[in-house]
Amino acid sequence: MALRILRGPFLKNIAVLASGTALAQVLTVLAYPILMRLFTPDQFGLFALFGALNMTFVVVASGRYELAIVMAKTEQEAANILALSLGIVAAVSILSVFAIWGFGDALLDLLGYQELSGLLWFLPLMILTNTASQVLSVWATRQQLYKRLSMSTISRSFGVAAAQVAAGMVGMGVDGLVLGLIFGTVMGTVIVAWQLIRYDLPSLRQVITRENMRRLAAKHRDFPLYSMPQALLSSTTVTVPSILLTALFSPYVAGLYWFTYRLFEMPITLLGDATRRVFYQRAAELFHKGEDLTTIFVRTTGGLAAMVALPVLVLIVAAPTLYAFAFGETWREAGVFAQWIVVWWAMRFISLPALMLVPVLNLQRRFLVLEILTLIPRFMVLPAAAWVANVDVAIAAYSVVGFSFHFFLVVLVWRAVREHRAGLEASQPSPA
């Protein structure tokens, strides 16, 4: 069983996604040394603030219903959940226009950064394209269209990198960073949407009905009730540092943090995203067949831990020197941040299989409780550390909170996997 799971299509699909994502990340890595010299840490700090506002909307814009697409037992159910998710995305994108019109200036006054006022009007487009791409990617995962997903990832990274470098060369500042992100996101979304429009839409129209969407919205209500609040709370991992570091210290510090965050996001995207998608599809398949999940969970989690061990050790020892050499002396302090953040992100990387088993094993309520328990430390640790110490202590304390959350997530899911296994064994007929 273990060999069947971890050989053949499982690893082949991971390789297809990972190879495309690897090329995308190579493009990003090649662009970073240029971007670091075209833009200042302060500009990256304001860009991070825009990204935080965008993420706040994106994580709720689909009601998290897209997570039910892979879990659907029939193609008809999956198609109706897809339509439901995209409909919610469109509605939230339209509502965001009115939210910006009514409260945008007041929010920027509160934060003290009116420099972003003109860019706020791009948020609805970002919400629409980001979330629609997220939903369509889950549909493509169910259909095992991994080459299409790889093409989308490559196009997005190329578009973002090329547009941001071009904007930096003509001195556009933070506007160029935001517009470059929008350009690349639209490119990636168009490619993943083309599969649906060209091949799937005619057959989907025959099975999608309002009645089916209403029925499935009620059936999968745990996703908006529990998974959506959890995702919103989880997004504070990104949004809270960007906002609080800007307010408590400066956009310069927020820019250093954002840069380090983005660098550690690369390995998560490189292998983590590929593993996450394929693991989720395979785990859901095993669950529906009534098979044990222990082997695939332990092997995948252990493999990710082994993969990340050496890079973590190197960065703990030498991150400031490596950052200064690669990106310039201005970014040495970001390397100091990295010595702490890498431990948190390593645990985040290792916990990816556990995260994907949350919807499979219907653990949304337990996961939400874990997020709530982590919320207070996540909000309080940066102001507390800023009051009694310096920014390095603040980053270290925040990293410890992040590490703890992902560690306890693995423990929670491991217990649920054992419970599932025990239930399967109890249901087996006793030998005569």
TrEMBL record:
The chain crosses the membrane at residues 47-67, 79-101, 121-141, 177-197, 223-249, 296-325, 337-361, 368-389, 395-414. It comes from the Bacteria. The keyword Transmembrane helix applies. The keyword Transmembrane applies. It is found in: Cell membrane. Keywords: Cell membrane, Membrane, Transmembrane, Transmembrane helix. Pfam families: Polysacc_synt_3 (PF13440). It is a multi-pass membrane protein. GO terms for cellular component: plasma membrane. Belongs to the polysaccharide synthase family. This is Polysaccharide biosynthesis protein.
